[in-house]
């Protein structure tokens, strides 16, 4: 039986395989569903993805969307929350809801204006003024941690140590 994630994480056209693998590993560890919006700039089964994702990747099957339109068609009943340096609301001042999809843009370019216009909210991670942005994998972990805390949805501790007992999709 598969878990039913409280929230999901989506990556918009990721272009660094190691970051994508690290994000998928975070999804596995936190019990969060994963979605990838194409086009993708690399092969998901490539060596760099496998190296960074280690054996965690066998525990996650991300939903792959051909493009933004396909993502929207599949998720029209869910609220998409975009993390962007162009936002004015901090993620810590936002009230996450069960069913939200937390969306992150490309490492090299963020997301286009049409994505900004289509989302339910835009949030930022406050940081030092001399910094441009955090690494994608670090950003996802920070924001997912807050969303799961608010929703009291962190995975429950297991007594057995069998990994990948259930698949996260």
Total number of β-strand segments?
7
Query: What is the beta-strand fraction?
Result: 15-25%
Query: CATH class, anyone?
Result: Alpha Beta
Tally of helical segments: 5
Strand sequence of the main sheet, in spatial order? 3-2-1-6-4-7-5
Number of discrete domains:
1
- Under the CATH scheme, which architecture would be assigned? 3-Layer(aba) Sandwich
What does this structure look like?
The protein has helices at 17-30, 47-53, 68-74, 113-118, 136-150; strands at 8-12, 33-37, 63-65, 80-83, 89-90, 101-104, 121-124. Helix 1 (17-30) packs parallel to helix 2 (47-53) and helix 1 (17-30) runs parallel beside helix 5. It starts with 7 loop residues before the first strand and ends in a 19-residue tail after the last helix. It is of the alpha/beta class. The mean pLDDT is 87. The protein has one domain (8-150): Alpha/beta knot, CATH 3.40.1280.
Descriptors for this entry?
169 residues, Alpha/beta knot, single chain, seven-stranded parallel beta sheet, alpha/beta, 7 strands, globular, 5 helices
């Amino acid at each position: 039986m598969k878990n039913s994630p409280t929230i999901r994480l989506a990556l918009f056209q990721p272009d660094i395989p190691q970051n994508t693998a690290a994000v998928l590993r975070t999804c596995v560890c936190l019990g969060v569903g994963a979605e990838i919006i194409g086009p993708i700039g690399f092969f998901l089964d490539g060596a760099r993805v496998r190296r960074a994702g280690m054996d965690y990747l066998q525990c996650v099957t991300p939903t792959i969307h051909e493009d933004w339109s396909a993502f929207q068609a599949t998720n029209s009943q869910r609220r998409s929350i975009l993390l962007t340096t162009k936002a004015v609301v901090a993620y810590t001042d936002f009230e996450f809801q069960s069913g939200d999809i937390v969306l992150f843009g490309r490492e090299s370019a963020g997301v286009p204006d049409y994505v900004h216009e289509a989302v339910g909210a835009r949030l930022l991670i406050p940081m030092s003024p001399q910094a441009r942005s955090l690494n994608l994998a670090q950003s996802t972990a920070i924001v997912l941690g807050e969303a799961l805390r608010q929703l009291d949805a962190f995975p429950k501790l297991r007594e057995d140590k069998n990994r990948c007992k259930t698949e996260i999709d």
